[in-house]
Amino acid sequence: MFVKKLVEKAAKKPGGSSSEGLRANDVEPRVVLHYGIPSGSHLFAYDPIQKILAVSTRDGRIKLFGKDQTQCLLVSEEASTSKFLEFVQNQGILLNVNAKNQIEVWDLEKRLLSHVHAFNGEITSFRVMQHTPYFYVGDSSGNVSVLKIDQEANQVIQMDYTIPYLASNGNQPLYIPLGSEPPLETSCCFVGSPVETSDDTSVVSILPQPTAESKRILLVFSSGFIALWDIKESKPVLKTGGHGMVKQEAKKATCACWVCPSGSRVSVGYSNGDILIWSIPSKGESSTESSAMICKLNLGYKSEKIPIASLKWVYGEGKASRVYVIGSSSNLLQVVLLNDQTETRMIKLGLHVSEPCSDMEMIMADGNDQGKHKQGSLFVLGKSGRVYAYDDNMIEKYLIQSQSKSAPSLPKETLVKMPFSDSSSITVGKFLTNPSHLLNLSDEDYAQLAKDAASILPSQTVSKESSRSAHFPGFTKVKNVYITGHNDGTIGVWDMSCPFLIPVLFLKEQTDQDIPSRGTAALTALHFDSNLRLLASGDQNGMVRLYRFKPEPYLTENSFIPFHGSSKKGNTHIVQSVKNIKLTGSITCIHKSQNSKHLAIGSDQGHVSLVDIEEATVIYTKHIASEICSGVISLQSESCSVQGFEKNVLVVAMRDSSVFALDSDTGNMIGTNMIKPKKPFKALFMQILDGKQDSSGNGTDSNRESIVEDVSIRQPSVLICSEKSIYVYSLAQVVQGVKKVLHKKKFSSPSICSASTFHGTSGVGLTLVFSDETVEIRSLPELSLLKQISIRGFSYSSPKQNSLLEITISASWDGDLVMVNGDSELIVSSVLPQKDTFRLVESLSRVYKKDSTVCQEGNIASSPKEKKGMFGSVFKTKPKRTTDTETESTKETIEALSKIFATANFPWNNNVERSRECNTVIRVDNEEEELDIDDIDIEDDDDHHQPQEQEQHKEQGILSGISKQKLANKFSSFKGKLKQMTAKNEKSVVATNEEKHEETSGTTVEQIKKRYGFAPSEETSAAKMAHSKLQDNLKKLQGISLKTTEMEDTAKSFSSTAKELLNAVEFNKQSSKS
Question: Is residue 1073's pLDDT more than 80?
């Protein structure tokens, strides 16, 4: 009876407090760090000047890797696959084309999306004209459009210049001058008749010709047709390839790349596995109507009918150049040595990648010593999103030595992964945060450590002379500590005060007793207690290891710990003792109560053991039988009143969501029944809610208690989360075996994969991570939804039976989540607002170095002339090492291109207008201004008329809108003596201006072309040019005649006035005499 009243009293105890609990304004869930290679990686891009590697994914994310440990994650609004990805080199701009044919412009300095351009058509090829603001877009209809990046307006502008399919392929139409109508026979063929989209018409590759990037581009179509397009002449100077040139089975071109620094050789890959090398006239050579096929590269893809997916060429710089080839859905990556004997004797290397390849990129090492040979790395992207690296110097060495008798060694494959361990993956983790830590290291020290630490990319090597060690003063002396357990039994300790991993300690099977090694097993549980300086680990074989550490701070002879971990002898300054305890089953959880020196340990076979920490002995072991699943997922201790006496109870949560209480001293069950839901699901998490316990079991609750001591005086309750439901029970009723649900929440789909609690300034909250990338924040104990976010790229699948998790999630007491996806990526999210989880976040996210001095020597695939900076910088100021001559040449080149691209070279092609209508960027034309008398120039100087003539094709002529009456009204405003002269000459002036406009309208296009270096159209003959010249001369003569007539009239008027004045004077004299 007494117990029943006690339970009723506890149930009626008000759950409110002076605080209203956690509110929506108290939380701000967000992703604060992404480290490593993102899942679903799809494409590569590389800026060889800034040394930035970009990796795009299938869900709209782009990861950037820069120098000195800098990393940055860009997340697009559209979760769409990337089709093309390319840098505007050294300008801090990254262009991404997604599957929806949207061109995204990313500002790398601000790390945000500055503009999205919706392209009208299916984009099939994409190429940036480096060192200029222009880029080319090829579509499925065979047309090539020119677009411009306007940095001031932060938008993409489509230029008037186009390369239509009908102009670049075969039957080229006549060039139609601007402002004139096409002939009847051409208008019915071309105007308003776009080419139907087909597999043969699409543009598969756009290649600006080396040493002539601003003058010529090579277009490769799916049909195999190759056209070398002259930008200024606006016509093809070479037509080759296609089904007519190659008399073989039907095949389609899939990719192409230059294989010569002068642009005289191009390699084209085909859908049947062929790789052909064609000769192309380079700069200065005479153009031909056809080109010869030099040779065919037989690499075995054709025999298996594997389409060529990608080609990449590396210039040898004095040695033989190389072509890298990957086939579609093929594991084989082949490298071919190109030299004079390639056609007769081909030297090649086959690299068997661990999985089918989707993309590749070449990266030069960031070596500080310019005198040494730079190391290069070949990065290969697999279909699964994993990245593999090869030493390119080993590839080059193999190809060269294969010509000799000595047998070369094959280059080894290296999997790019996080630097947690050389050969193991994380199976369990523990994240410790210390808000009141002492600043043992300054930001400058961490910045230097970032430069010296091992990078995730193998190409960014650190010399041994400049490498530095990390000082680890202690677990509670740094901002963040991440403890990892691995599948080989290793324990890693990492300083995560900054957004990168600093290894400080490795522990593996160390003991101070003469206990033989029992073999390695994956770690499955970790527990850390800062008060006892204790780290406990449990593995799959039931082995529990207790590591006792020395008092902090840890000091060594030089106060540093080696970067690559510590040996057994090197750990003696930190580890005081190691003790082993063997239990039954795989260890699933380890718990220690605050006021006890005992550890409660659970296993997957339903055993609950109590272990003495000092003696390393087992006090008792209890086996809990279960009808469904006997595994123990969590243990929590609490002091509770049982039958009028205070007892230490141990609450046990089983895998089947059942909950019960044991007497901590004896291990006997207190209640008569287990508390379980009607429909049990796999349990994930259990926590006692009383405002005292550390939610994450970190043991670092001395700082937390000062924050939450006045937050809540609610009745103690038990929270248990499963994959499909959440229940909150009264602790007193759980102890007695009485089921009464205080709060509950059920979910249909998706499933919960992780749950944890956190402490804020106004209450305790619950963080739920779902398998569909959703993260929910709920209040406790009411379970009301406060906020939710989506972590793009996070995918979770339940592990198979007796297998380890691929994704591990660790939670800190203040709501930080560390999610590790295998050995490829790490994601950290934070819940509390205005919380700085890491130091140096801003500086270590700045991958683009705007003010850094860079050179173009890193471009391994460029020609020697390219490296001198042919174009230089175009957007802002000139580079520090660019001469005035080069800058002047650059400006002239850009100005010439801007005039060319601003002109509609094919007015009959309406692709530009259709694209502008579909795009969100609206081009507003200036309204016609009212004519003012000061704007009229009555002189005949050609320099004054040419600017007007240039605008007439765009504005349809200023004078075309001027009537005779308007001119008459303007001239009639003159007063005084000019009135008579104006009235006299008004008709002749109007007639002259009208005649001049008629003549100018017909010659506007030709004058513009002559001024900017364009060749005359095919319709212009010598006779017509002579006639035009005569008309110009006649116009000037008419103007001179008009001026002469005006001068004569003025002189006559002046003479008449003078005579009248003379007569008046004489009359006055005579009058005075008389």
Answer: no
